[in-house]
Amino acid sequence: MGPIRLAIVNDYEIVVRGLAALIESDRRFAVVDISVDDSVEAHADIALYDTFGAADPDFASARRLLDSGTVARVAVFTWSFDDSHIERATKAGVSGFLSKSLTSRELADALHRIHDGEFVASAAPDPRSDRATVRRWPGQAMQLTEKEADVLALITQGHDNRSIAELLYISPNTLKTRIRGLYRKVGVQNRVQAALWGAENGFLPEESRSPG
């Protein structure tokens, strides 16, 4: 039997390329496609669908991948273990709901089980665990927290404060605190500067970028 053929899907190029580099170190897998527009051209046994930047995913993209005919199974790769997210993902037909707190070996084992036809759902990460703090997202080098990165991603995509607060299920005051924090960390003074910084540092969905 040959390696398991994987496609990696996310709106952010920095995410898919980083995850592909991690997985390609395991010879039991072959990354056959990376996608930033929810379309997978190569035939894949599993599409690993990373939900970074999707504050309230409806998993329609996962359903489209399964309906495309090029992907046999979809596994969601996420930090979010909200019960409604798991329910929606299951209804969309996904074969796994995998935590980003998994080690590379645990992720590989989970993907093997999914390839064998099993539905795999990770346990929600324990926030007290050291492992739960080993995360990667754009802006981490500037000390942005994951929550601040989510806010910056949405600012970069053109959302206003009201929309961001609704998408992230946070109060306006909490949002303002996160915005002040991210402004300070990336060295900007206003929303326009923040959006420009985000566009230049991996926060803009690939399909929205312009050459140069």
Please give a structural write-up.
- The structure is a single chain.
- Strands 2-1-3-4-5-6 form a 6-stranded parallel beta sheet, sandwiched between helices.
- The radius of gyration is 17 Å and the shape is globular.
- 40% of the residues lie in helices and 16% in strands.
- The chain contains 8 helices and 6 strands; from the N terminus they run βαββαβαβαβαααα.
- The N and C termini lie far apart (44 Å).
List the helices and strands and how they pair.
Blueprint (H helix, E strand, L loop, with lengths): L3 E6 L3 H11 L5 E7 L8 E7 L9 H8 L3 E8 L4 H9 L4 E4 L4 H12 L4 E2 L24 H11 L4 H8 L3 H15 L4 H10 L12
Parallel strand pairs: 1-2, 1-3, 3-4, 4-5, 5-6
Helix pairs in contact: 5-7, 5-8
Q: Distance N terminus to C terminus?
A: 44 Å
The helix content, as a percent range, equals 25-40%
CATH architecture of the largest domain: 3-Layer(aba) Sandwich
What is the CATH H-level superfamily of the largest domain?
A: Response regulator
How is the largest sheet built, in terms of strand order?
2-1-3-4-5-6
Annotated CATH topology of the largest domain: Rossmann fold
The residue-averaged pLDDT reads 81
Counted by DSSP, the helix tally is 8
* CATH level 1 class label of the largest domain: Alpha Beta
Total separate domains: 2
Evaluate the radius of gyration.
17 Å
Structural class call reads: alpha/beta
Number of beta strands: 6
Largest sheet: 6 strands, parallel
> What series of H and E elements makes up the topology?
EHEEHEHEHEHHHH
pLDDT < 50 runs, ≥5 residues = 130-134, 206-212
Strand content: 15-25%
Shape: globular
